[in-house]
Design brief:
By secondary structure, this protein is an alpha+beta fold. It contains 12 helices and 12 strands. It has a 4-stranded mixed beta sheet with strand order 9-10-11-12. It has a 3-stranded antiparallel beta sheet with strand order 1-3-2. A hairpin with a 2-residue loop joins strand 9 and strand 10.
Length: 279
C-alpha cells in the first residue's frame, strides 16, 4: 500500500497551525495552490484577506498573535514585531488596539499598509531579533530601547520593572551619556525653568564634593547614575556619605539621571517643598 502524499490543503493546515491561523501568498504557492486556486478559495470564503498577500484561513477572528504574525508576513523577509506590539507578548505592557508595530531592516522599498505601523532601521541586527512563541520579534533589550522613543516615561519605567521581575535579559541599560558639565547644565536649567533658587554645583562640604548645594538652605542634591552607583560597595559608600552629611545638618536628596530627564516638573515641586522647609 502506497503512503498517501500530503495534499496542498493538508500542507497549508500545518502551516496555519504554526502561524496562528494565517498564511502568506508565497506559502500558498509553495504548497501547490495556484493563484487561480487561491482566488477560488477567497470567493468560497475559505480564505480571507488580512493584508495584501496574507490570508486568514476559515475566518477573520484572529488572536493578537495572529494579527502580529499576519503583519510580519505582510512586510516580508527580515520584518519583526517591535515597539509597543513587541512589549505585549514579552508581557512588559498590555496589548493595545490599533496598528501592529513592525520594524524592517532597511530605509526604503516597502510601503506602509493599513493596520501596520512600519518602522525602518539600518540598526536592526540579528542580535536584536528573536522568535517568541513562533513570531519574529525584537529582543527584550531592543524592545525597551524602541519604547524609549514612543511611550511616556512612566510607561517605560513600568516596562523595565516588568522585564526585571520576569528575569528578561535587558543587557546594559543605556544611561544618558552626559559629562558632568552637561548634567550640571541640565539640572541648573531645571531650576531656572521652575524658578527655584540656584544651587552651587560641585560644592565642597567637609571631605566631600557634593553635586549641588543650596548654601544657607542645608540642602544637597546628588545625581546618581546606575553605571557608577550599582553594586554592594557603592551602595554602602553612598549610605555612609549620606550619614556623615546628615550629621553635619544637611538634607540629602538622591536623584537618578532618568528622574532629572523624564520628570523635571515633579522633581522641581519636590525641591520647592524642601527648600521652603529648610529656608
Amino acid at each position: 500500500m502506497h503512503e498517501e502524499l500530503d495534499t496542498p490543503d493538508r500542507v497549508i493546515a500545518g502551516v496555519v497551525a504554526r502561524q496562528y491561523g494565517v498564511v502568506s501568498a508565497s506559502q500558498l504557492v509553495g504548497a501547490g495552490i495556484s493563484k487561480d486556486a487561491t482566488f477560488h478559495r477567497l470567493r468560497a470564503g475559505r480564505l480571507h484577506r488580512v493584508h495584501r498577500g496574507v490570508y486568514a484561513v476559515g475566518h477573520l477572528r484572529l488572536s493578537n498573535d495572529g494579527r502580529r504574525m499576519a503583519a510580519v508576513l505582510a512586510c516580508g523577509d527580515g520584518a519583526v514585531v517591535s515597539h509597543r506590539s513587541a512589549a505585549a507578548p514579552w508581557r512588559l505592557l498590555p496589548t493595545i488596539a490599533g496598528p501592529v508595530d513592525v520594524t524592517v531592516p532597511d530605509l526604503g522599498g516597502r510601503r506602509s499598509r493599513s493596520g501596520i505601523r512600519l518602522h525602518r532601521s539600518r540598526m536592526l541586527t540579528t542580535e536584536a531579533q528573536t522568535l517568541h512563541r513562533g513570531i519574529p520579534v525584537t529582543t527584550p533589550a531592543r524592545t525597551i530601547a524602541d519604547l524609549r522613543r514612543v511611550v511616556p516615561p512612566e510607561r517605560l519605567r513600568r516596562a523595565i520593572r516588568e522585564a526585571e521581575v520576569l528575569g528578561l535579559d535587558l543587557g546594559p541599560l543605556v544611561e544618558p551619556k552626559f559629562t558632568r558639565s552637561e548634567l550640571e547644565h541640565l539640572f541648573l536649567r531645571l531650576c531656572r525653568r521652575h524658578r527655584l533658587p540656584m544651587p552651587v554645583p560641585n560644592a565642597p562640604v567637609g571631605r566631600f564634593t557634593v553635586d549641588f548645594l543650596w548654601q544657607g538652605r542645608a540642602l544637597i542634591v546628588e545625581t546618581d547614575g546606575y553605571r557608577y552607583h550599582r553594586g554592594r560597595q557603592a551602595f554602602e559608600d553612598d549610605r555612609d556619605r549620606d550619614i556623615e552629611l546628615r550629621m553635619r545638618g544637611y538634607e540629602v536628596v538622591r536623584l537618578t539621571y532618568r528622574q532629572v530627564l523624564d520628570n523635571p516638573a515633579r522633581i522641581a515641586a519636590m525641591l520647592g517643598t524642601l527648600l521652603s522647609r529648610v529656608s
